[in-house]
Design goal:
The complex is a heterodimer of chains A (122) and B (110).
Chain A: E1 3-7, E2 10-12, E3 18-25, E4 34-39, E5 45-51, E6 56-58, E7 66-71, E8 76-81, E9 90-100, E10 103-112, E11 116-120
Parallel strand pairs in A: 2-11
Antiparallel strand pairs in A: 1-3, 3-8, 4-5, 4-9, 5-6, 7-8, 9-10, 9-11
Chain B: E1 9-12, E2 18-23, E3 34-39, E4 46-49, E5 63-68, E6 71-76, E7 85-93, E8 98-101, E9 105-109
Parallel strand pairs in B: 1-9
Antiparallel strand pairs in B: 2-6, 3-4, 3-7, 5-6, 7-8, 7-9
Classes of the chains: A mainly beta (122), B mainly beta (110).
Chain lengths: 122, 110
């Protein structure tokens, strides 16, 4: 079954850290861009980061506080969140970028996971 | 504040049609394509439109979309209860050099 499944969310105190996982099934990690996007319920979506075979990138809003990595043997992508703040409270989704015939299309995320909730509160 | 502007909420009765707008500028919608996503809390967001007006495989033809200048419109006809969701538009922004999203529209099927 082609899917993404996130885990690792929870309640963390301000200043704390959390490592989110995204397990990929039904397609290879290689040749795909896996992104992290967060959603504050009642508010908008925010793209955070991606990782590909050769590259990784971060949004300015989280640069320096977030790292992204992957383990192809475990078919997993990880997002490490550090120095967490109340405004980081959100549902964190991983999402695959749509690629076709060797081209990939920014803004087109064709497969998402159901998300994992991160709550930052004392 | 989201870069792309959507109405916060819309509602319509089952069987009716609704059109959700998404407005941007020349650096995003005006020069790049738009995609749409359907979010139901607790479930995986669904990719329902790309390249302004293309439906991904498996998306019902009750969903259609169009673009005019720096605005795009997602139309849903024959509304059903399970169309009730938050809908988000997204595009690339050439000035911000990143993906930008709309603030989302909560669609209620009365």
């Amino acid at each position: 079954q082609v899917q993404l499944v996130e885990s690792g969310g929870g309640l963390v105190k301000p200043g704390g850290s959390l490592k989110l996982s995204c397990v990929v099934s039904g397609f290879p990690l290689n040749d795909n861009y896996i992104n992290w996007i967060r959603h504050v319920p009642g508010k908008g979506l925010e793209w955070l980061s991606y990782i590909s075979d050769n590259d990784k990138m971060f949004a300015d809003s989280v640069k320096g506080r977030v790292t992204i990595s992957r383990d192809t043997a475990k078919k997993s992508v990880y997002l490490q969140l550090n120095s967490l703040r109340a405004e980081d409270t959100a549902v964190y989704h991983c999402a695959r970028l749509r690629c076709s015939d060797g081209s990939c299309f920014w803004g087109q995320f064709d497969l998402w996971g159901q998300g994992t909730l991160v709550t930052v509160s004392s | 504040q989201s870069v792309l502007t959507q109405p916060p909420s819309m509602s319509a009765a089952p069987g009716q049609s609704v059109t959700i707008s998404c407005s941007g500028s020349g650096s995003n919608i005006g020069s790049n394509t738009v995609s749409w996503y359907q979010l139901v809390p607790g479930t995986a967001p669904k990719f329902v439109m790309y390249n302004n007006d293309q439906r991904p495989p498996g998306v019902t033809d009750r969903f259609s979309a169009s673009k005019s200048g720096t605005s795009v419109f997602l139309a849903i006809s024959g509304l059903q209860a399970d169309d009730e969701a938050d809908y988000f538009c997204t595009s690339w922004d050439d000035i911000l050099n990143g993906v930008v999203f709309g603030g989302g529209t909560k669609l209620t099927v009365l």
